[in-house]
Amino acid sequence: MNVIELLADLQARHDETAARAGELREQIVHLTETEARLMDLATTRKVIAELVPVACEPEPPDTNTAYQAIVNAFNQHPDQEFRAHELHERLGMPTDEAAVNITRSRLGRLSARASSPSPDEAATRNGLNVH
Question: How is residue 122 annotated by DSSP?
Fold first, then answer.
């Protein structure tokens, strides 16, 4: 390899490295902007959390809502038996087969609990029918 070829190779490597350095500088600028935005969002969330009174915070969702609605329906009509599909219609729940099957499963669990001798659970015994 002669000196001219060596200098040409060095110039090509220099140009490639300079281009890569330029790309990395652009990424650093983008990263810096993104980190600044992230810090702004964290600060905003912290300020809002400090300003919102505790009483205004929403309560966590009740995971037993469906069970409670089912028990309430049976407690309101202790002499009536419900099929799972009818129960869904009465409670305004979806009546697709998958949803009704979930309720059938819930009714089975409630029925098993209702057969226990606990007086607190006696109200759930009335009318539980897993059809």
Answer: G
In angstroms, the CA 45 to CA 21 distance is: 36
For the entire predicted model, the pTM comes to: 0.38
Q: Closest Cα partner for 77 from 66, 69, 104?
A: 69
Helix (H, G, I), strand (E, B), or coil: what is residue 78? coil
- Kindly give the interhelix angle for 97-114 and 84-91, rounded to the nearest 10 degrees: 100
Which helix (H) or strand (E) segment holds residue 14: the answer is helix 3-51
Report pLDDT digits (tens) over 58-90: 544 444 677 788 888 888 888 888 788 888 888
Q: What is the DSSP letter of 123?
A: G
Give the CA dihedral 62, 64, 65, 71, nearest 10 degrees.
Answer: -150
Q: How far apart are CA 96 and CA 93, in angstroms?
A: 9
C-beta pairs of 66-69 under 8 Å, 24+ apart in sequence: 66/93, 66/103, 66/106, 67/106, 67/110, 69/93
- pLDDT tens digits for range 20-63: 999 999 999 999 999 999 999 999 988 888 887 655 545 444 44
